[in-house]
Fold each of these.
Amino acid sequence: MSASNLLIVLVIFISLFGMSNAQLNSTFYANSCPNISGIVRGVIQEALRSDPRIGASLIRLHFHDCFVDGCDGSLLLDNSSSIRTEKDAGPNIASVRGFDVVDNIKTAAENACRGVVSCADILAIAAEASVFGGRSWNVLLGRRDSRTANFAGANTFLPSATEGLTNITAKFAALNLSVTDLVALSGAHTFGRAQCFTFINRLYNFRGTGNPDPTLNSSYLATLRQICPQNGNGSIVTNLDLTTPDTFDSNYFTNLQSNQGLLQSDQELFSTNGSLTVPIGCDGSLLLDNSNSIQSEKNAGPNVNSTRGFNVVDTIKTTLENACPGVVSCADILAIAAEASVSLAGGPSWNVLLGRRDSTTANQAGANTLIPSPFEGLTNITAKFSAVGLNTNDLVALSGAHTFGRAQCRTFSNRLFNFSGTGNPDQTLASSYLATLRQTCPQNGSGSTLANLDLTTPNNFDNNYFSNLQNNQGLLQSDQELFSTTGAATIVIVNNFVNNQTAFFQSFAQSMINMGNISPLTGSSGEIRSDCKKVNGS
Ligand code: HEM
C-alpha cells in the first residue's frame, strides 16, 4: 500500500465519518464488546472464500446507508407495516448485495455481546475491514440504529451513474462532502462489479447521438460491447476496475486517465472540461435565464411556476446601473431587497452585509436537490439546512418568513384529503382551517390557486405565524411539523417566538445574516453582472 493510496482511503473514511455526529469514538465498544472488530473481520474472511466481491458489496452498503439521513442502518430494514424498505428504491433494488453477510455478522455479534453493537456500526466496521482486512484506521463508533427507513430519500439522495457530474457534486455537497471527497470516495470503484444496465448508455447511443461515449477508449469499448451486447441481459456484471478487479489500489484513477472508467460518473471525474466548482451560495445564480451555457435554476422543480418578483429585481438593477454602473451585484440586490421587504412589512431591520459578486454559472441540478420541499419531512429539511451551515434555530426563525406571502394549493393539498395514503386529512390540521382550505383548494381543483401562508395577518411581518402553528393552522406540512413533530427540538423555539416577538425578530435578523453568508463570491471570483438575467458578454 503506497502512501498516496493510504491517503485516499483515509480521506474516504474521514469523509464518511464526518457525516455522523461528533460523539463517535474509536473505543466505544472497548468494554462492552472488545472483540467486535475481530468478529466482523472473521465473518468477512469466511465470506471472501466463496465470494471475492463481497468486500466491495459491503463498503457500498455503508455508502448507501450513510447518504440517506445519515449512517443509521436504515438501509438494512425490511418491508413491514410501518417500513417501506430502502432496499426497493431505484439505486438499491437488484443491485446492492451482502445483506446475508451483515446478518451473519449481527448474529455473531449478538452471540458475543447481546444488544450492544448497532447495525449502523457493523456497516462502518465492515467497510473498513473490507478495504484493508481491518487494520488500517480506527473506525469511529457509537452510532445507533434508526427506527424508520426513507424510501423516497434513497431515491432522491443517492447518485446515479448517468446524472452528470454537476448533479452528483451537488448531492455530495448537500452532505457537506467536497469535490475531493467525491473523487476519493469514487475510488471505491477500484474493486467490485457493475451490471450492464448501469453503463450500457455509453456503448451504442450515448445521449441520443447514435454513437458511443467519445470519452471511452476504443478497445475498452469493444470489450464492453462483447460483454453487454445491445438488447442483451442488463444484469450481466463486469469489473469496475479492469486491471486489478479485486484489489483496493489506485488503478481506478489510472484507468480514468486512459479513458477506461466503466461508469459515466467515473470517467466524468477526469474527462469533464473546466474546473469543477460547486455553484452554491448567495451568488445571484437564480436570476440567470436559460442560454447556451446556462440551464436556468428558474426551471428547477422548486422554482418553476413558483418563484416570482424577477421583474422587480430587474427594475432595481436598471435603476442601480443608472446610478452607479457596474458596482452592485445582483446577489447583493437580493440581500438588500430581502431586508427592505421585511422591514417595510413591519418586521425587523438589520445591517445587511454586502460585497457579494455574481456567479457566471447556474446550478439547476443543485436547485432541484438542495432546496427543501414542503413534503419532505423535518429530518430531511433540518439536514438540508445543516448542510449549508444553518442550525435548528435558523430553520425555525427563517421559516417565520411564512408570516407573509402566499402558497399555491399544490404545495399543501396533500394534507387536505388523503394524507400519506391514509384516506384522511393530515391530523395536525385544525378542523375549521381544514374546511376553509378545502373550499379554497377543492379536490381536482386548480393547483395554482393561492392561499395566505399566515391566515391571520397575511401581509404583515409579525409572530402570528408561530401562534398559527400552536393552533394547528400552519399551511404547509413543513410549517406545521416544526410544532407537531413529537420530541422535536423545534417546538420549544416555536413556543419562545410566540411568547416573545422581539426574540423572533432578533433571531430572524441574525439568521438572515447567517443565510446571506452562505458561500459568497468575493474578491476576483465571479463578476458584477450588468443584467441579472445574463452572464456579462453573453
Ligand atoms: C459518485 C457517485 C457514485 C455513483 C454514481 C455510483 C454508482 C454505482 C453503480 C451504478 C454501481 C454498479 C451497481 C450495479 O451494477 O448493480 C456501483 C458499484 C459500486 N459502488 Fe458506486 N457509485 C458512486 C459512489 C460510490 C461510493 C462513494 C462508494 C463507496 C465509498 C461506492 C462503492 C461502490 C462499490 C464498491 C461498488 C461495487 C459493489 C459490488 O460489487 O457489489 N460507490 N456504484
Amino acid sequence: MSASTPLLISPNSVLANALLRSVDILRPRIQATRPKRIEFVVGTQINGAPHLGTNLVQTTAFLLAQVARREFSVETSVRFGALDNAPHDVVLDPETHHAYQQTYFHALGKAGIGDLIGTYYRAFFDSLSEAASTDYTLETYTDQQAAPGFRAEFLRTLERLEEIRWWMAPSHGVVHTRLPCPECGWAEKRAERTKLVGLGEEGARFTARCFDHGAYEVDVDPETDAYLDLATLYRNLVKERLLGRDTETMHVMLKGGDWAFGCQLVDGALGVIGTPGHQMPLRIFTPQVLAHTGAKLSKSLLRERGKGALPADVEPWMLDTTTWPGGTDHYVDVLLWLVGELLTDPKHFFRSFTVKELGRLMTNRPADLEQRPRAHEMGIYKRYFDLIKAGTKTTEIRVNDSSRQRLKVGDLLRFRCRDEEVLTRITRIARYTDFEEMFDHEPLSSVNPTATREDQLRNIREIYPPEREALGVVAIGIELATPALPVESVS
Ligand SMILES: [Zn+2]
C-alpha cells in the first residue's frame, strides 16, 4: 500500500478530537495518582467459541498494555476474567413459571471450565502474551466471587441496597442476586423469591426457593463458600468498586463499545454510594463489530434467527474464530496488526466497524505478514538504528522491565524506527544493577562506537529517569539476522 492512499478513513469525534493518541485517555488518572502498575482487565463469557468482537477486545488489552508501558514508563499487565457464571441451561419451574438457571461452573465443574478455557483461550492468550511482550493472569468468576475482598465489597453494597437497587434494575428495582441451591446448584434467574432477611457485622442471610428442593437459607460472609452469582451490572459494580480501592495498581477495564450504554447505570450506582472521583473506574471501550444492519455481531442472533440472519459479509471464522484458516500465531499476528492500525489515530479507534469494512482491512494487510517471523520489538532513535543496521552497534541497552525479562539468547529482536525496521538475533544477555556497572563490563564501542563513556551515560540517563534505572539494566548482544528491508505499510 502506498502512503498516498490511506488504509482507513474515519470522521472526527468529540473524544478523538481531544486526544493525540488513544492511550492518552489514561493520562489524567496517571498524572493524579502515579500508579506503580497498570492492569488491563478484560472479562469474557466463556459460553463456547469466541467471535471476532471478543478477540478484538482481548487483543486491544494486550496491545494497550504494551503501548502504555512505553508511554507512561510503568509496568503493565493483562488480567483475563473468564465469566464461568454465564448461564449454561435455563428451565421454567412448571408451577410458577419462574426461570431457573445453572451456571457453566455448576454444569461443568472446575475441571470442565479449565478444559473450556484451554480449548478456546489458553493458546490465544499465550500467543498474544508472547507477541505483545505482556504478562497476563487468568481468573474465573468463580475464583473472583470466592475472594474475601469481593465478598466484603458485596456486603458493603448491601448496606446501600435501597440507594443502588433502582440503578441496578431501573424497571422494577429487584436486584438479581442469585444464590444457587446448595443441593443442586440451580438458582432463580431473576431472584423473584430470593430475599435478604438479615444483614449485620457478621454477614448477610438470604432465603430462596429451589424448584426441586424447596426453601433454603444461604449465609454470605467474606469467608463462607456459598456461591454468589451476581447479574452482570451488579457484578461490575462490585468488581469496579473493589478495584478502585487499589492505591498501587491502576485498573483499566476493556469493554466492547456496546457497554458504553450500560455503564451509565453502574456509574449511577457508584455515585450514590459515594465513590470518590479518583476511585471511579477507568474504562476503554473498543470498536464494536457490526452486521450490515448496524446490529452488533452476535452469536445469539445466529442462534435465534439461524444462519439466514447473517449478512453475506460474515465469514465463518468471524463467528467462531477457532475456524480461522491458519494457526493461532498467525491469527494473533493479523489481529495485532489490525488493532495496531486502529490505534494509529483515535478517530480510527473510538468508532465501530461493519464486518464488511473489517474484512476489507484484513484483506489489505501487508502481504509479508504471514512470512514475518515472531520477534520481540523495540522502537529506537534513528542514530542508533543506523548503527545497528550497519552492524557496528552490537549491544543494545535497556532497563530490565517485565518485557525485557522475556528476552532469551537465540530470540529474534526487531528494531523499528519510523518506516524502517531491522531484524536481529540475540546473541547474549547480561543484567546489571545500573548503567555505571553496565559500562564497567560492556565494551563501550559495541554500545555506541562514536561516543565516550561520559556522553553515553548522559544520553542514556536522558532517556531513562532514575526510577526506571532502578529496575536494573539489561545489555542485549545482537547480530543482524537478515538483510534489513524497508517496510512500506508501517506508519
Ligand atoms: Zn435444588
Amino acid sequence: MKSQVHTMRPTRVKKGSVKKRQSAAATHVAIIGAGRGGTALLEIFASDPLVEIVGIAEVNPKAPGLTLARRLKVPVICDYRKLLALEQVDLIIDVTGDSAVGMVLQDFHRMGVAVIGGASAKFMWQLIEARIRATAEIEKTLNKYQSLYRLYVKEAGAAVTEERTRIACEIHDGLVQNLAGMNFKLDLCQELVRKKPKTCQTTLREAKAQLKLAIQEARQVIFNLRPLHYDRLDLIPALTNYLRSYETQYHIKTEFAVSGDETTLFPRTKIFLFRIVQEALSNVQKHAKADRVAVQLAIGREVLTVTITDNGIGFDVEAVSRDPEKWDHFGVRGIVERARLVGGEARIESKRGRGTKVVIKVPLGKKEVEPNGTD
Ligand SMILES: Nc1ncnc2c1ncn2[C@@H]1O[C@H](COP(=O)(O)OP(=O)(O)OP(=O)(O)O)[C@@H](O)[C@H]1O
Ligand SMILES: [Mg+2]
C-alpha cells in the first residue's frame, strides 16, 4: 500500500459494522493491506468463530486478497484511516509493509485497541501462510489416500464378482462349446459306425481334435484361476494367456508385441502392470466398441513402456475425470495410481472417434527399489 489514492469504489464500512457474527466475545480485527499477508489473515480468521473481521483496507484494486474479502463479505475500503475510526475494533493488523502507514499507526493510541505492524505482523502472516500451505498439503495427501482406499475396497469386492463372471464366461464360451461339439460328433459317430464307417472315422478324428482343444481350454481356465503371486508371476506368459482368453471371450482381436527381458523387473512391478493391462482391456471391452486392441511391452535398460491401443470410439479424458457421475469409477484412477506406486506414470490419450491409447512408463532405475520384491 504505497499511497492512499482512491482508485476504486470503496465499500462503505459503517461504524461498528459487524456483518458476520454479532458475538460480543469475538475479537474484532481490522486488516490493513490485502496482499499476500492480508490474504493469509483473511483465510485463517474467516474460519475462526472467535474472530470477526470488521474491514480490510487496500488501495490496489487488483490486490489478491480483495476477491476473497468480497466472498467473505468483509467490508473493503481504500482509506485505512477509516478503519482506525471504527467503533468496534479490538485489533488492527498492518501487513502493508508501508513505512508511512507504520508511522501513522505508531501515533495511534486508543484504549482497548491493539496494533500489530512491521516485522511482527510480517512474521505472523508468514507463519499463518505456512500453516495454510501445510493444511492444504495434508488435505491433498488425505484425499489421495482416501481414493486409494476406495480403490482397494472396490477391488476387494467387485473384483471377486468380476472374476467369477469372467471365469464363467470363459468356461461357457470355450470349454462348454467344445464339449458340446464333441458330444454332437460322438452322437453322429454312433449313427454312422455301421452304415458309413469311413465317414465315422473322419468324425471321430474331428471329435478327437476337439477334445484336444477342450483340454487346452481347461488348462487355460486353470491357469487364469491361479492366484497371481507376486514372487511367481511371469508377466509375458500371463499376458499372453490373458489376451488369448480375452480375444475368445469378447471377440476383440488382440495383438501382443514384446521386447526385452522381464527377469529384470521387480515382482511388484509385474503384478501392477498386469493389473493395469487388465483394467485397460476391461475398459476397451466395456466402453470402446473396438474390434482391435494392441498391447506393447517394451522393457528397455532404463525404462519400461507398456502401451495399450484400441481402435474404438475414444472419449474426452478431461470431461470424464470431471464428470460427477463417475466419482466412484476407479479404473482409470487405478491405472494412474498403480503406475505411480511403482515409480512411473500413466498417460491416457484419447479423442472421440479416434480410439484410446494408454501409455505407462516406469523408470527401471533406483526409484523402483523395493524390499525383497514383495508387498
Ligand atoms: N478405452 C476406452 N474407450 C472409450 N471410453 C473409455 C475407455 N476407457 C475409459 N473410458 C471412459 O472413461 C470412463 C472412466 O473409466 P474407468 O475405468 O475409470 O471407469 P469405468 O470403467 O466406468 O468403471 P470401473 O473401471 O470403476 O468399473 C468410462 O466410464 C468410459 O466412459
Ligand atoms: Mg474401467
Amino acid sequence: MPRSLRGELLGWLLIPLAGLVAFNAWTTYRSAVATANLITDRTLLASARVIAEQVKDNDGRVEALIPPSALEMFASPDRDHVIYRVIAPSGELIAGFPDVAIPPRAPTDLQPVHFEARFRVEDIRAVAIAQPVVSKSAGGNALVVVATSLRGRDRLVTELWLRSLRDQTLLVGIAALLALFGLHRGLAPLLRLRSELLARDPGSLRPLAAENLQTELKPLIDALNHAFARIQTYITLQRRFVADASHQLRTPLAVLKTQATVGLRDTETAAKTEALAAIDGGLDAMARVVNQLLVLARAEPGGAAMRKEAVDFAGITRAALESRAMLAFDRRIDLSFEGDEAGLELQGHVTLLREMVANLVENALRYTPEGGAVSVRLTREPGEIHLSIEDNGPGIPEAERERVFERFYRLSSGTEGTGLGLAIVREIVAAHGGHITLSQRTPPPGLRADIVLPAS
Ligand SMILES: Nc1ncnc2c1ncn2[C@@H]1O[C@H](COP(=O)(O)OP(=O)(O)OP(=O)(O)O)[C@@H](O)[C@H]1O
Ligand SMILES: [Mg+2]
C-alpha cells in the first residue's frame, strides 16, 4: 500500500487533535451545565428568601403572602414555569401547589437544599429553605420550596457550550491550517528533490545538492550520492573493460585475418600448414588476452560477486605451481616450493588467489633466462601469511617497479604478453586486504615479489 509522508504526519497531528476536541466538548458541556445551574440556583434562592420573609404568624395562624417580585425574577423569553409550596411548621400547606416535590433531606438552619425533581410532565430544579416562625401557639420552621422548569437553564447551557465549542473548533481549525502550511513548507525541499530526480537525464549520476535540506535528510542525500559515485565507478570500469578488450583484440584479429587470407591464397600444402600454425599461435595469444581481461574484470572492486570463504592457501599455491610446471620444464628452470603446511588458511576467493600466484610464477619463469631458478616460499606470521617468489632473471629496475602494475605496461617487448598480469595481481591482493612489494633479489640479479595477506 503506498504511504504518503504528508498524510501520515497530518494523521498523527489531526487525529489526536480531533480526540482532544471531543474530550474538550464533553468537559465544556459539563462546565456549562454547572454554570447554568449556579445561575438558576441563585435566582431560586433569592426568590425563596423573598417568599420566606413573608411567612408570618398572624394571631396563631401562620400565613404566607407571595409577593409578585418573587416570581418576576424568573421572567424570561423561555416562559419557564415557576412553582412553589410553603408548609407551616405544623405541616399544613399554606401556599402553592401540594404536589411540588419535597427535598431529599430537610434544610437545616439557613442552609438551603438544592435538588432536581419532576413536576407533573416536566423536569424541575428546586430549592428548599427553612424559615423560623415565631408563634404564640407553636414555634418552629416553615418550609419554603421554589422550583422552576428547565427551559431557560437548558438554553443557557446550549449557549455557553456552543460558544466555547465554536471557539475551540476555530482554534483547532487554525492549528490544522498552520500545520498543513508548515508541513508543506517542511516537505518542500524533499518534493523539490523528487522533481529534480525525475527531471534529470536517466543516465546522469551527478551528485544531488544537499544545500537547503534539513539535517535529517542530509544523510539520505549523502548515501544516495555515495551510491551514485559507486555506480559511476562500476560504469567506468565496465567501459574501460570494453575499450581494453576491443583495443587488445583488434590487432590480433587483423593479423589472423591476414594469415588466413595468405593461407587460402597459397597453393602449396606446406605454406598452408605454416599459415594454419601461425593462426593457431595467434588464437592462443588471443585466448590469453581474453582470459587475462576477464580475470582482471572479476578482480576489480565490484567486478565479481566476491563471496569469500575459508581457503587453504598452501593448496592454492601448489595448484598454481602445478599449472605452470610445463613452462618450467620447457625452459629448464628449477622451480622450488617451500611452505609451512598447516595454518595457512585465509578468507578468500580460490580462483582469484590461484590466478594471483600463477601470474607471479609465470612472470618469474618467463623473464628468467633458460636454466635459471625460481623459488616460492610460504610462511606464516602472527595474523599474516607471507608469500615470496624469487627468480634470478634480469629483475625490474627500481624506477619501473611501480609502473609495471599499470595495465598494458610492459618492459620486455621481445616476449609475448598482454601487460595485464601484475595489474591483476595488484587487484586481487587489494581485494583480499593484503599488499605486494617488488624488490631486488639478494644476491642480485633477480626479482623478489613479496605478498602479505591477512590470515583467518
Ligand atoms: N619476474 C620478472 N622479472 C623481470 N621482469 C618482470 C618480471 N615480472 C614482470 N616483469 C616485467 O613487468 C612487465 C609487466 O608484467 P605483467 O605480468 O604485468 O605483464 P606481462 O607479463 O607482460 O603480460 P601478461 O602477464 O599479462 O601476459 C613485464 O612485461 C616484464 O617486463
Ligand atoms: Mg605476466
